[in-house]
Amino acid sequence: MSAPQSAVPRHIAIIMDGNGRWAQNRGLSRIKGHEQGAEAVRESVEGCGDLKVEFLTLYAFSAENWQRPKNEVFALMTLLEQFLKEKTPELLEKNVRLQAIGRLTDLPESCQQQLHRSIEATSGNDGLTLILALSYGARLEIIDGIKSLIREIDAGHIDSAMLDPEMFSKHLYTRYYPDPDLLIRTSGEMRLSNFLLWQLSYTEMYVTPKLWPDFTKQDLFAAVDDYGQRQRRYGLVL
Ligand code: IPE
Ligand code: IPE
Ligand code: MG
């Protein structure tokens, strides 16, 4: 299948799920699944580049994922740091600008440093913006947003009577980005798992049984093609 010509989403968000099952199906450790999952990122980044998608948000590590076994969390953090170090030259070559959302200060120190180096190194790129959701939880994000609003109200910068959804959106981690147009979840689960609860209000959803390490550029094109057939109504009669 070639890249679809129909409506292309401006912003795609992906819940990259199924690394553990991919490994278990092969008798491998879950960590091998995460390694393979990290390799699969290239497929979607390239696919978005080909389609001229402006923003790609990848759910890489949730606030809840800290409760996984210690060795898995350690492996994921090591892998993240290694991924950033190894792939930054590739991101530069592909004109990708890296960003991150989540409680980034929860990440190990060396990981944070590498993340900031990669963000800084790619900050001049004007192609795809790749946003990694790390230690991300939507309910925490909303709470952080409320705290930030309260500070502004207390300082007299905002009149609470003027508060509306647009204003609230400006206090979320995602304030610089438009809401996702298309949400993809791999591995067949029909749930949001605390991902972008506010921002996904009118996002089109696409769930595929494919496990994340098997998700290719062609699979991304298939999802975008499906999106192109949808009629977005936003509650109106069209
Ligand atoms: C997604 O794969 C990656 C992360 C959550 C970090 P999983 O590790 O959730 O894989 P499954 O769902 O157990 O197969
Ligand atoms: C969601 O997947 C988080 C990421 C993909 C990073 P999980 O595997 O953690 O979600 P649940 O446990 O199936 O809801
Ligand atoms: Mg999972």
Automatic annotation (TrEMBL):
SUPFAM superfamilies: Undecaprenyl diphosphate synthase (SSF64005). One of its GO terms (biological process) is polyprenol biosynthetic process. Its cofactor is Mg(2+). Binds 2 magnesium ions per subunit. InterPro entries: UPP_synth-like, UPP_synth-like_CS, UPP_synth-like_sf. GO terms for molecular function: ditrans,polycis-polyprenyl diphosphate synthase [(2E,6E)-farnesyl diphosphate specific] activity; magnesium ion binding. The active site is at 17, 65 (proton acceptor). Keywords: Magnesium, Metal-binding, Transferase. Substrate binds at residues 18-22, 30, 34, 62-64, 66, 68, 185, 191-193. The keyword Magnesium applies. It is an enzyme of class 2 (transferase). Its EC number is 2.5.1.-. Mg(2+) binds at residues 17, 204. Pfam families: Prenyltransf (PF01255). Gene3D superfamilies: Decaprenyl diphosphate synthase-like. Homodimer. Belongs to the UPP synthase family. Catalyzes the condensation of isopentenyl diphosphate (IPP) with allylic pyrophosphates generating different type of terpenoids. NCBIfam families: PRK14830.1, uppS. This is Isoprenyl transferase. It comes from uncultured Chthoniobacterales bacterium.
